[in-house]
Write a structure and sequence with these properties.
The chain is mostly helical and 429 residues long. The chain has 18 helices and 5 strands. The structure holds acetyl coenzyme *A.
C-alpha cells in the first residue's frame, strides 16, 4: 500500500530511515537530523537560490505553473481585477477575507489619515543628488520611516503592529510620488482627501497648478489594475528578502526596504524596462521573425517571456493585454503593442518556446501599460514596489505570527582552505 513517506538510504553507512511527506514536502530537519553529531550537521541540503526549498507555509497566494493560475486567498486574480480595487485586494492579502462595506470604509479611513509623511521625510529625500534613481530614494525613505515612530520595533504588540501596517500601505504612494517629483525638480504634492488611493498616486505625481486635480477615470483604473496584478506573487526574491530580514525582528519598515532594494536589481525590477527596450529596438513586426531566430540560436534573451513559476502564459499578461485594449479605445495604441503581440503569436506557434515553457510574462505588457498612463520608465520599479508593499506586509505579518518561523540562518558548504598557520606581513610572498 502507498505510504506518504520517503525512504532514505545512506549508502556510505547503510543507515536507512523513513521521512514523512506532508503537503508534497519533506522537512529538511527530518532528512538531516539523523546525521547530526557533536561535530556538526553531517549532512545538509544544498539548494542555491532556494529554488527547491519551501521557506514557509503560506495561505496568502497560490500559483500553479500550468495552466498559469494566480490566486490570492483562494480568489482568482482575474475575478479580483474584474470586480475589486487594489485597496480591496490589499485588505484581502492582509486580513484573509474580502472586506464588508463597513470594514472597507474603516480601512480606507485608517489609511487616509496616515497617508501624509513627516516634513523631515521631505528634507531626507531632498538630500539625494538631483539624478538619484527613484528606487534608491524610495528604499532609503521607507527604511528611514521606522525612525519616525517610537513603537516601530514593537512587532509583538498588536496595536503598534497594526499602526505600522496601515502606515506602510498608506505612505508608500506618497514616498514614491515624492521621489518622482524630486527627480523632476518639481514641488511635492500633498495627498488629497478627495481622491482614491490610486487617484491620489496620480495626483501626487502629475498635478501641476490645477486648483482641483481630477484623474482620467480610465487611466486611474488602468493603474489600479497594474497595482492589483503586482500586489503579491508568493515567495519571489524580494518577498524572500522581506521575510529573511524580517525574521531578525527588525521593524517592518526595514524589512520592506529590503524588498524595495531587491526589486531595484536588474533580475527583476528592470524586466519591464528591458522588455520595452527590446520592443523599441525591434520597432516593427517585420523584425520579429529574424529576432526570434537569434533568440533560438542563444544570441538574445526574449524579454517579457519565461518565468520561474509559470510554464504557461502568465495570467497577469492576459489581464494587462485586455487592459491595453480598453485604454486604446480612445487613444492611439503604441506601435510597439503590435510588436509585442507578434512576438507572442509566433512564440506560441514555435516548438522551441513551447517545449521550454517560454510564454509571455507580465512584463510583456506592463511597460506598455505604464507608458499609456504616462508613467515613465524610471518609475516602473517604484510602481511595482508600491503595489507589492501590500503583499510584503501580509507576508511579513504571516511570518512573525507563525510559531514555526525562526530567524533565517542557512548553512553553507565550505570550500575554502583548511586551517593554516598565520603569517606576519613581513613573511608573506
Ligand atoms: N529567452 C530566451 N530563452 C529563455 C527564456 C527567454 N526569456 N526563458 C527561458 N529560456 C530558455 C533558457 O535559455 C533555457 O534553455 P535551454 O534549456 O536550452 O538551456 C530554458 O529556456 C529554461 O530556462 P531557465 O533559465 O531554466 O528558466 P527559468 O525558469 O529559470 O527562467 C527567467 C526564468 C529567468 C525569468 C527567464 O525566463 C528570463 O530570463 N526571462 C526574460 C527576462 C524576463 O522577462 N524577466 C521577468 C521575469 S517575470 C517577472 O519577474 C514578473
Amino acid at each position: 500500500m502507498a505510504r506518504d513517506t520517503l525512504t532514505v538510504i545512506d549508502n556510505r553507512s547503510g543507515q536507512q530511515f523513513d521521512v514523512a511527506i506532508e503537503n508534497g514536502a519533506v522537512r529538511a530537519t527530518d532528512l538531516t537530523n539523523p546525521f547530526l553529531t557533536s561535530a556538526g550537521p553531517g549532512l545538509v541540503i544544498y539548494d542555491p537560490g532556494l529554488a527547491h526549498t519551501a521557506l514557509c507555509s503560506s495561505s496568502i497566494t497560490n500559483i500553479q505553473l500550468e495552466p498559469g493560475l494566480l490566486e490570492h486567498r483562494g480568489y482568482r486574480i482575474e475575478d479580483l481585477v474584474a470586480n475589486s480595487t487594489y485597496l480591496e485586494v490589499a485588505y484581502l492579502l492582509l486580513n484573509g477575507e474580502l472586506p464588508t462595506a463597513d470594514q472597507f470604509a474603516h480601512f480606507q479611513r485608517a489609511l487616509s489619515t496616515r497617508k501624509f509623511v513627516h516634513e523631515n521625510v521631505k528634507s531626507f529625500i531632498q538630500g539625494f543628488r538631483y539624478d538619484a534613481e527613484p528606487m534608491a530614494m524610495l528604499a532609503a525613505a521607507v527604511g528611514a520611516l521606522g525612525s519616525f515612530y517610537p513603537d516601530a520595533a514593537e512587532i509583538d504588540d498588536i496595536d503598534a503592529r497594526t499602526s505600522q501596517i496601515m502606515r506602510l500601505v498608506a505612505k508608500m504612494p506618497t514616498l514614491g510620488a515624492y521621489a518622482f517629483r524630486y527627480g523632476n525638480g518639481q514641488p511635492f504634492v500633498h495627498p488629497s482627501d478627495d481622491l482614491s488611493y490610486t487617484g491620489n498616486l496620480l495626483s501626487m505625481m502629475f498635478r501641476m497648478s490645477e486648483l482641483q486635480y481630477s484623474p482620467d477615470a480610465k487611466l486611474e483604473h488602468a493603474l489600479d489594475v497594474l497595482l492589483m496584478v503586482h500586489a503579491d506573487h508568493e515567495q519571489s526574491a524580494a518577498t524572500t528578502a522581506v521575510r529573511a530580514v524580517g525574521s531578525a525582528h527588525v521593524d517592518p519598515y526595514a524589512a520592506v526596504a529590503a524588498g524595495v532594494y531587491t526589486l531595484s536589481g536588474p533580475m527583476r525590477g528592470n524586466a519591464d524596462r528591458d522588455t520595452l527596450r527590446m520592443l523599441r529596438e525591434l520597432g516593427t513586426v517585420d523584425a520579429v521573425p529574424a529576432f526570434l531566430q537569434r533568440v533560438k540560436a542563444g544570441e538574445q534573451r526574449l524579454f517579457g517571456f519565461g518565468h520561474w513559476v509559470y510554464r504557461a502564459v502568465d495570467p497577469r499578461a492576459k489581464i494587462l493585454r485586455a487592459q491595453l485594449e480598453t485604454l486604446n479605445e480612445d487613444r492611439p495604441p503604441s506601435p510597439l503593442l503590435a510588436v509585442a503581440d507578434e512576438l507572442a503569436r509566433l512564440a506560441a506557434e514555435d516548438e522551441y518556446f513551447l517545449s521550454r515553457g517560454i510564454h509571455p510574462n507580465v512584463d510583456l505588457y506592463s511597460g506598455l501599460t505604464y507608458e499609456a498612463i504616462g508613467i515613465t520608465q524610471s518609475m516602473f520599479g517604484v510602481m511595482f514596489a508600491i503595489a507589492r508593499s501590500a503583499g510584503w506586509i501580509a507576508q511579513w505579518l504571516e511570518m512573525i505570527t507563525d510559531p514555526e518561523q525562526t530567524t533565517v540562518r542557512p548553512r553553507q558548504l565550505y570550500t575554502g582552505p583548511s586551517t593554516r598557520a598565520y603569517k606576519p606581513i613581513a613573511g608573506r610572498r
